[in-house]
Amino acid sequence: MKLLIFPHSHFCEKARWALDYKGIDYEPVAVMPGLHMRTIRRIAPTSTLPVLVTDDDTVQGSNAIFDYLDEHYPERRLTPVDNDPRATCVALEQRMDENLGVPIRQILYASLLEHPDFIAQCFTHSMPAWKRGFYRLIGPVLRKKIYAVYVRSPDAAAAARVQFDTAMNELAAELGDRDYLIGDAFSRADLAAASLLSLLALPPEHPFPWGDVPAPEARAFIDDYTDNPVIQWVRNLYRKHRVAAA
Fold first, then answer.
1. What is the pLDDT of residues 119-134, one digit of tens each?
2. Taking phi first (over 0 means left), then psi (-120 to 50 degrees means alpha), and beta for anything else, what does residue 181 get?
3. Do the bridges between strand 51-53 and strand 27-30 make them parallel or antiparallel, or are there none, so unpaired?
4. DSSP, residue by residue, 171-208
5. 11-24 per-position pLDDT tens digit
6. Which domains are assigned to the chain?
7. Model-level pTM?
């Protein structure tokens, strides 16, 4: 079993965490942004990652991977069995993808793309030397394309910050003083929230070696949320539930 990922991606972290949590043996395969499109479109309908490749199936997207894993590896379920909590869980996860995962990427890329060495580490971590060398050739063009697609403009990044702050307040209200979002057990909703917010929490249990974040704007964004109760909750979930890969 292989999981095709962007090494730094918070959406890919959702799938990695689910596989590790269930104790499933798999190989994470790092794919370079931009160049991934031709590779992924050969095996899946779109070019988005993560993609789980098994002997019998190809499953694209972290939410679909959750469904697949709970169906085929039901131990340590991440999805509630009963219809109402299941629907609530899946809807909450989708909302967090849109209102947390997408804006946080936009906010951070707005400043981090100006730091080529840091972005090179994000895009080529764990890749062989020849791929890292190739990235050095295409990096400037790739960074411009990623800015155009994911950031678009300073005004768009500022709007993303407003959207993100609003979603964080909503998540804080949804969580309250509880340990988990749905019932009394760890679920895909908790895993999704923690994975998407790992870019702010920077937990040591995360498989990507973040190191120092160089951009002052990105660092300020992270610092703004360092003591936020939701981010503290994320760090606690990582400590309790982020089982390391075998």
1. 999 999 999 999 899 9
2. alpha
3. unpaired
4. HHHHHTT-S-SSTTS--HHHHHHHHHTHHHH--TTSSS
5. 999 999 999 999 99
6. 2-72 (3.40.30.10), 83-241 (1.20.1050)
7. 0.93
